[in-house]
Every structure is written in structure tokens, then in C-alpha cells.
Amino acid sequence: MQALFDAVNAICAKIQIVSNWFWDFPCNLDWYGSIPILGNFSLAIILLVGTGIYFTFRLHFVQVHNFIFAVKVLMQRNHTRNGISSLTAFLLSTAMRVGPGNILGVTGAISIGGPGALFWMWVSAFFGMATSFAESTLSQICKEKRDNEYVGGLPFYARKLLNDSAAAGVALSMLYIVYALLCFPAQGFNTISAVGAIAGKISGVNIPTNSSLYWISFAVLIVITAVISFGGIKKVTKVTDRIVPVMAVIYVLTVIALTVGNIDRIPLFFSSVFTQAFAPDAVFGGAFGLALSQGIKRGLMSNEAGQGTITMPAAAAEVSHPCEQGCVQALGVFLDTIVICTLTGFVVIMGSMWLTADANAWFELGKLDKFLASCGALTGGNDMLYSVVTLLVSVCFGLFAFTCLLGFMSFTEMCANRISSKASFINAIRVLCLIVISFGVITNIAGMDLGALWELSDFANILMVYCNLPLQYIGFKYVLRAWKHFEKNDGTPFTSEIAGLQLPVWDALAKEHKNEYHH
Questions:
Q1: Quick check: keyword Transport in the entry (predicted)?
Q2: Could you tell me if 501 and 437 lie in one domain?
Q3: Strand pairing of 144-146 and 149-151?
């Protein structure tokens, strides 16, 4: 087993080198890196932020203009006949967005790039909201109906936009499945880690990872995941509808309580974020580019705007116009980064462990331990309060990982449907997912940490970005037509004629609307 873990670590380490090259290119070239200001912006950052800026202006700041509208859509309790509701789709996508990365990613970004990294997360999230609107609207435009459910997303609009190329749809479906398989081990690892941490806090005993508790938890996790995922997307959404609001509320209230207890440190938080966005402290290397790249990279890993990985639930929603769900999904980026990630930033920056005598020891800790140590700095030495906080954080961390795992399972199934809708194929994909999840759990039980494995998601993310963003530009004219029709608000249904693209689903909905009107 040790030999297997070592081999996986070695492979991951090599992939990490490639991943870093793609993320840093062309800043890693001397001639480009020496260019003032521009030399700090990699191609990936220019593409991600540049696309968000472009869409923001072309769509007249849609993320601001339709913010309240998106909230109103979420408040509606509409009955759905085929797809899922806007709220359910929002919660399913939030299950994916709000994951362990909201704690680990933000903590890691700040510990490497300094507090200023959070500022660049905000910037990327603001413009990323427009990108999310565009890709989610495009996903709705190109959705298909199968077995009384709507399916769509990146593989589906890729096929539609590339001259109905079946090969393009299959290729991007396979890419997403590989992306998910690379991320599953970490979610399994994190879920079981949280179970052990919770049990340890309750019992007051440090429980070994190879104990019966971990093995039983492993079995329960796989069984529960199998039962839910084999029930299809509607079964998954029944779970995420209940868990996502609970975990979000627990985390928000926990951090707010810590913040209120340290209200005198709030000025430190804001001054650190804004002053170090352009000039990080020497302890973080003092490099503007590092704060920038960490903020953009971790912001993407958290809210996934521009990746195309959150487009599947957007397509599954049953709405009266494609832009409705586009507005809702843009709101998801706001919740994930501007709210949840900022709360994590509050804890880490207000704790400012790098300014204490324990700074060197803090930098050596793992990301979760860094966050918990920052929590400890805000509890004023109260051991009871610290125990309660770490218990609540562990519960949230476990729920973040579990719901993220369920989201990956359902999205992987949607992509598998693009390849083949045969039950045997779909079930084979589900089983493969469970096997890969098991690998992550067993890694934890064996007491191993696959180090570079966590960096694989960076590589998977950048691959998805380079595949998805060109499609966004190809399909933007259809998004623009849909948006103009939506803004006109003249009561006419959205159809193929308006989009300039053959859309059987929307034509059928328009026909139903017409028949209902005449009756």
C-alpha cells in the first residue's frame, strides 16, 4: 500500500509542475515577467478576469442590475413538472461551490499571498458573476429534455455550438468525468477527517485513523453516497435542499460570533486586505503578483466561474426564460466568495498568526490546522469556547466535503448521459466514482497524506477554463440575444427564432405557453 501511495504522490508531483506552468504562463518567461505591471498577469488570469470584465460591460453590469431580481426568483415556490426549481438548482450548485476549499483554499491563499489575496478574490468574484450569468444562461439555452428531466451544461452547449458535433460533446463529457475523478479522493479524505475530528471533540480523545470508527464511517459514507447517487439527480437535490442551508447558517453564525467577540480587530482586517492587495508584507514575499495569482486562483477554485463545471444544475432548472437561471447562478458566486470566503478571511486575518511569536510554527501547519489556530487566537484563551468553535467548524467542514461529493456525483452522471444514456453505462460510472472516493478514504485511514494530490484540482481547473472560455465567446451572441429579449420583458416566450439557434426545448415550452393562454 505504501508503494502505491508513493507512486501516486510522484505522479501528482509531476502533474503539479505542469499545472503551475499553465497557471503562471507567460509570467514564468523572463522577458514577459520583466514587463512592469503586465508581467504580474498570467494568461489564465487575463482570460478569467478579462472575460468577466468584457461580459460585465456588454451585459451592462447584469450582476448588479438583476441582483434583487435573482433573490426574488429564489424566494418563489413554483411547482415544476419536468426539471427542478431555481432554488433547488441554486442549492445543488452551492453544494459544489461551497466546499472544503472555502476554508482550505482561502486559508492557503492568505498564508502564501497575504491578506491582499482576499481583495483579488473579491475582484474575481465580482466580474466572475457576469461570467457565471453568461455560461449558465448559455446552458439553459442549449438544454435538452430526457426522461422528463432537463439536462445540459458544458458538454451539451459544446455540441450545439460546434456544428452539432457529437465528438465535441463526448470529449468534454469525458474531460469533466476525469476532472471529477481527480477531485473525488480529496472529498472522501476530507469527509472522513471531519468525522474523526467531531468524534474526537465529543469524546475528548484523539482517535487513531485506523480505528473501527473510521472503518465504520467509511462503510456508512459509501452506502449513503451510493443510495443517494443511484436515486438520480432528484434524490440528490432532496438531500442538498436540506443540508446546504443548514451548513451555511452554522458556518456564518460561528464566524459572526467570533467576529463580534473581536470587533476591535475589524479595522485591522480591512486595512490589511486593502493595503496588502498591492504591497504584501515581507513575510509573504512582498510580491504583488503572488497576492494576485493566489486570489484569482483560489477564487476560481471556490466559485468555479468560467470553468463550466457549475453549468449542469443551471440547465436542470425549469424556468420561463434562460436568463432567470443565469441571474440566480450569478448570485451563487456572490454567496460563495463575497460571503463564505470572506468569513474565512475574517478569521485568518483577524487572527494574524504571522504577527505572533508562533508565526514560524503556524506557517508549518496544514491549511485546516492554520484555520483552527486562527480560531484559537480569537477565542481569548477560553478552552471551552475553542472546543465548541472547532466542533462546529469540523461539522461544517464535513458537510462541505459531503455535499461537494454529492454534487460531483450528480454532475458526473449528467455528463455521462451525454456519452450514453444506457443504464449499464451510467451505473458503471457511479461505481467508478465510489471506488475513487474509497481510495481517498483509505488514504486517510492509512494515515497517509497524498501531498500533491490536492494540487491536482489546480490542473483540472485550468484545463476546464481553457476548454470552456472559448465556447463562451462562441456562444455569447446567443446569450446577448436572450438577455436583450429578457430585458425587453414584453411577455413573448423565448424561442429558436429569437436565439437564432435550433432549440427544441424552448420551442416546445413556447407552444405549451400558447396553448395554456388560449385555454
A1: yes
A2: no
A3: antiparallel
What percent of the chain is modeled with pLDDT above 90?
35
In three-state secondary structure terms, 517 is helix
More confident of the two residues 354 and 233? 354
Provide the pLDDT for residue 82. 67
Residues 345 and 406 in one domain: yes
Instruction: From residue 229, give the alpha-carbon distance in Å to each of 146, 288, 416, 435.
Output: 18, 44, 13, 13
> The cell 465510489 sits on which residue?
434
Give, as one character, the DSSP assignment of residue 84: B
Can you tell me the distance from the alpha carbon of 118 to that of 121, in angstroms, rounded to the nearest whole number?
5
Distance between CA atoms of residues 432 and 404, nearest Å: 17
Average pLDDT over residues 285-305: 75
Look at the chain and report how many structural domains it folds into.
2
> Same domain for 141 and 156?
yes
Check if the beta carbon of residue 271 is closer than 8 Å to that of residue 13.
no
Locate all alpha helices (DSSP H) within 162-283, ordered by sequence: 166-203, 212-229, 233-261, 266-275
What is the reported pLDDT for 518? Answer: 41
- pTM assigned to the model: 0.90
191-371-105 Cα angle (round to 5): 65
Torsional sign, CA 272, 335, 135, 294: positive
405 and 509 share one domain = no
Exposure b/e, 31-51, CB count within 10 A at least 16 = b = eeeeeeeebbbbbbbebbbeb
Label residue 510 by pLDDT band (50, 70, 90): confident
Q: Are residues 409 and 496 in the same domain?
A: no
Cβ atoms of residues 131 and 326 within 8 Å: no
Across all residues in the chain, what is the average pLDDT?
Answer: 86
Residue 358's domain comprises 2-488
